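Workshop exercise sheet. Pairs work together: one partner reads the sequence aloud, the other fills in the structure field after running the prediction. Swap roles for the next sheet.
Pair: D.N. / O.F.
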Amino acid sequence: MNYREPDRDSLDAVFTALGNPARRRMVDLLAARPASIGQLADHVGMSLPAINRHITVLEESGLVQRRKHGRVNFLALRRDPLRHLHEWTSRYHAYWGTDEETLENYIAAIERADRTGTTTGDAPTTTADPKERER
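Structure field:
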């Protein structure tokens, strides 16, 4: 996979936008099909002023685009920011497993290095006293 680091600010904006349950619900609805702001407000159960504040955050993150038809504003999901988010999280896939496995393997590598007097590369420097390591 060719991974290209997304712009840090844009990735932060997507995380911020998706950090709110109401905005995640809006993204879920818009993933199925575009909707007018009124339709979206009805589905989410918000007033127009409240939903407009959320739409602004989604637009600023690049997740939503707006198009006006007559007097009605329609919204559609922009998938590129989600692709960038997926690419960013996918680079950690090789390290996924259980948290216990990861931590146990790391500690085992440190203990092997302590016994043999070698280093484990990027493992932190440890002290000889096991009680000190637990702090």
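Discussion prompt: Residues 17 and 54 are 8 Å apart (CA to CA). What would you look at next?
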